[in-house]
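so my prof wants the structure for this chain in the tokens format not the other one, which i didnt know existed until like an hour ago. anyway here's the sequence
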Amino acid sequence: MSHGFSGRSMKNHSVLGQAAVCITDQMADLAAWDGSSCDPITRKTTLTCTMGPSDWDVETLVKMINQGLNIARFNFSHGDFESHSKCLANLKEALKQCPGKHVAVMLDTKGPEIRS
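here's what i got, hopefully its the right format
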């Protein structure tokens, strides 16, 4: 399979320089990925997840952290302050259950927007 990029090509994977890119359109494939087998120090990919209602419970957040979540993104264009605050509190609780793991928090504040 060729993607028009230079580098090796494999079934469902393409290697661009030193970064391995997984090509999938199935969220179940990504959810089943065992990211814990990668060394987070040498891994060249940062996993960022936009927090949505399905990610707000502590159990799901613990699973995401153990799978290699690096950045939790909060999109303030959707939801309200209370829901984002609850999710952040749950993220802190989940991190207590994952000693030695760290997750950065990205706040995407609502700014000027043009809608047509």
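also thought this was worth mentioning. Residues 1-16 have pLDDT under 50 and may be disordered.
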